[in-house]
Amino acid sequence: MEVGHHHQYHFNIFRILGDLSHIASKCILLWAIHSNRSAEGISLITQILYAAVFCSRYLDLFWSDPADLPWNFVLKLFYIGSSLYIIGLMMRVFARTREREKAWKMGGSCLGGSAATAPLVLLIFKHWHYFDFHEVMWTFSEILESVCVLPQLLLLRQTSVPTVIDSFYLVTLGSYRAFYILNWIVRYFGKENYFEPIATIFGIVQTAFYVDFAWVYWTRQRVKLRNGGVVDSEDLSRGLLVNRLVGRADTDEEAVVTSPSTPQSPDQSFLTRSEGKWGSRGISVVADEPTPNSAFK
Fold this sequence. Notes:
This protein has helices at 13-36, 44-57, 70-93, 101-125, 133-147, 149-158, 167-189, 197-224, 233-236, 240-246, 266-274; strands at 230-232, 282-284. Helix 5 (133-147) packs parallel to helix 8. It contains eleven helices and two strands, in the order H-H-H-H-H-H-H-H-E-H-H-H-E. It is 62% helix and 2% strand. By secondary structure, it is an all-alpha fold. Strands 1-2 form a two-stranded antiparallel ribbon.
């Protein structure tokens, strides 16, 4: 949501749909965590990065008048509050993380790379005399948001237990940026004739990651599964972008994290995999079926 930038905003249908999709993704994730009483399969690193995105983007909360744009003001508070709340749930209430050293290094690289790139991006597009600290932080948030999903994708590759993430969350989170691309197109070709190159470029990057991963997920679900999907190394190799960043084999990190279970016969193992809840080298990325409570005990 681009409500942190100083330019005056004009609402259109795609802007509203983008905001609603983003709100829905947060609400779906919160509902999934509470209904399953678990945060299994959710990347704590990705959620921390999202919190950093919103806190750095919405610095104007300290000086803007809520009465000017009440819709924006409420959403800013909602995104910051919900992000911090999710982190609190994952660290205090349903504390459990399966993320390995590689994921933390990736998260650090996303954070550091975004911070180092932001001034250079502004220098290219805005020139030095056009921006201040707030503008730098806004640009940093745009760059960081475009890569926030990478630790989440890496986690989906490294574990093989049921997760609370479902297809509705993936669709709403990915579609919000797609709606914003349409919003930018309307604003550019409309009476406003406004174009924001930084938001557009990194918004397209972010959308590309989601589209690429969604293609992998959707084809796997249609071909191999019924009400669930398992994404593993073989599936990730289908995606052009995801495969290059998180789909490569890593013997040290590839050790699969599984839930304790009793030994199964070959027939039982086959039946379990065919139900779409378990994968030998991946994780169920769809919780359209209720997540078994026993998996988290």
